[in-house]
Amino acid sequence: MSLPTHFDVPAKGGKTVKIPSVGFGTWAAGDKSWAKEATLEALKAGYRHLDCAWMYGVDGAIGDAIKESGIPREEIWVTVSRCGEVATFMSAMAVLPAPCLGEISVLTSWDL
Question: pTM for this structure?
Answer without folding.
Answer: 0.73
